[in-house]
Every structure is written in structure tokens, then in C-alpha cells.
Amino acid sequence: MGKHVIVGAGQVGGQVAELLAERGHEVVVVTRSGSGPRRPGISLVAANAADAAQMRRIAGGADALYNCMNPKYHQWVRDWPPAAASLLAAAEATGAVLVTLGNLYGYGPVDGPMTEDLPLASNGTKGRVRAAMWRQALAAHQEGRARVVEVRGSDYFGPRSSDQSFLGPRFLGPVLGGKTAMVISDADIPHSYTYLPDVAGALVAAAAREEAWGRAWHVPTNPAFTVREVAERLAVLAGAPAPRLRRIPVWALWAAGVVDPVIREMRETRYQFDRPFILDSSASQAVLGLSPTPLDTALKATIAWWRESEDKVETMPS
After folding, report:
1. Which stretches make up the NAD-dependent epimerase/dehydratase domain (predicted)?
2. Crossing angle of helices 169-176/227-238, nearest 10°?
């Protein structure tokens, strides 16, 4: 069994750590606060990912170094470049495979399904930041200085999804509780959503398969569905009332952005929700040997997680 270092313990990093620990690997989770899953096989370390010397020491002897960080949405320009450079330097110094959790921002608006061979042509600030990170890592790989791979998913859903997930707690609560759920765009536009456990599985598989290195891959993801379709299916599976969805007017979103920097940053990626946003993962499924979790299976697990979370909140002492 090998040593795996994971930077970030959020909705993806924590699940990667647990998956690796279940398989018997030595796992080190790095966050600023030293937080993360507390279970046998996982060591928690407090460190700054942008500190290259620290990261070289922590990654010493590691087979893989996973970048699962999630800087604050409105601070990507400031926070991503030094952290990405530090982790790449650590991978170069230690020989660990650098496995980066990416996204689809770098492509920018496209017509038709997104595949891994599309150019990184985004004109948006966040898209350019992510594209630059990958180009720097890929250059190091092509020059023989490091071994790198990037795994890109669409918007996440599933157990332990964050409040920022469009199908996360703010959506699940109203839908499963029989109340009106607010959505940010037309509820009948097809959109690809990626299941969180599939993200973790793809990162681990990409780290282990030499034939995957030096490329970016999409997380195995189910065919696109609409928000209305997923809400209706959640209600059926949970035995909840038929869902009620209400669209938030664009002007209300932009007004909220005056005081909320996260909402303000969403203007750049608004195109993802105003037109079909389709991820094609057929190439990665063949190389990684993985398939997306069937939608009903994923939704049932999401419902079970949500109900367990609600029970924990309700039973906490006041």
C-alpha cells in the first residue's frame, strides 16, 4: 500500500481520503486548520498549501499528491496561483503524481457536449486561472519534471454536498420537505451534474493509472438532466409531495451580488445555466475503467444522507 497526500478536506477531499483509507493506504490530509475525516489510517496535518517547503516535507515518500483545495470563490485570482505552484513544486521534488481536481470553466461557452480535447478558450477570469494552472502542470509533465493528471467534473451533487452546490442542501431541504425550492435559471434546461463519490473514485483511479497521466479527464457522469427532472425523481424516491420550483429573477440575483461576493462572481459563469451544459465522459470511462453511478442509486444515497443529517440536527441539545 502507498502513501497519499490530499490537500483539502471539503466535499471531495474528505471522500477521497476515506476511499483510500478503506483500501488500506496511508493517507495524510492537509488543511490550514488540520481538519478532516477522523478515522484510522488518516493523519490530519495543519499547513499552508502555498508554502512550498512545507508541502515538500509533507509529500516526501508519497505516491500521489491530490489537489482538492477550494479557495473562496471570489479570491481565486489571489489564492490559486501560489497554491498551484507550491503543489507542482512538491510533486517535482518528491516524484508524487500530482492529481488536480479541475472543473469545466476553462472551456468557456461551447456549442454541444464538452470533451477533453476542447481548447481552454475561456475569456472569464476564473476560467483563465484554471487554464493557466493546467498549462503549467502539463508543461512540467512534458518536460519530464513531474507526473501530472487533471480530473474535471461538472456541478456536484450527492452526500456531503456543500451549501454552494446547486443541488445541495438549499435545494434538497425544500424538495424533500414539500416546500418551494428556488432555482437560478429555467428548470427545464439540460445540465450535467456529477455525483460526488464518482469524483473521488475518478481521482483515485487517475492517480493509479500511468496511461492516464499527462492528460485531463472528465469524471464519469450520467447523461444530462433538468433540475425539474431531478426534483421530481427525488420526490418519488423519497415519498415526498410533487416538487414546486420557483425561479429567482436575474435582477434579484444581481442585486444580491452587491453585498455577496460569491453571488457577484457567478455573473462570469451564468452561461452554464442559461443554455444546455453537457459533459461527455465517454473517453475517461474507457481509460479509467469506471462508469457513473446510476442516477436512482445516487439519488437514494443523497436522500439517505440528507435524512441522517436532519436527524443529527434535530437531536442536538439546545
Report:
1. 6-211
2. 50
| pLDDT tens-place string over residues 147-174 | 999 999 999 999 999 988 999 999 999 9
User: In the chain, what are the domain boundaries?
Assistant: 3-154+194-218, 156-192+223-279+290-315
pTM greater than 0.85? yes
- The 3-class secondary structure across the chain, one letter per residue, is CCEEEEECCCCCHHHHHHHHHHCCCEEEEEECCCCCCCCCCEEEEECCCCCHHHHHHHCCCCCEEEECCCCCHHHHHHHHHHHHHHHHHHHHHHCCEEEEEECCHHHCCCCCCECCCCCCCCCCHHHHHHHHHHHHHHHHHHCCCCCEEEEECCEEECCCCCCCCCCCHHHHHHHHCCCEEEECCCCCCCECEEEHHHHHHHHHHHHHCHHHCCCEEECCCCCCECHHHHHHHHHHHHCCCCCEEEECCHHHHHHHCCCCHHHHHHHHHCHHHHCCECECCHHHHHHHCCCCCCHHHHHHHHHHHHHHHHHHHHHCCC
Largest CA distance in the chain: 58
Strand partners, 44: 29
Residue 72: is it exposed, middle or buried by C-beta count within 10 angstroms (0-12/13-18/19+)? exposed
229-247 tens-digit pLDDT: 999 999 999 999 999 999 9
Contact 52, 90 (CB under 8 A): yes
Neighbours of 34 (CB within 10 A): 13
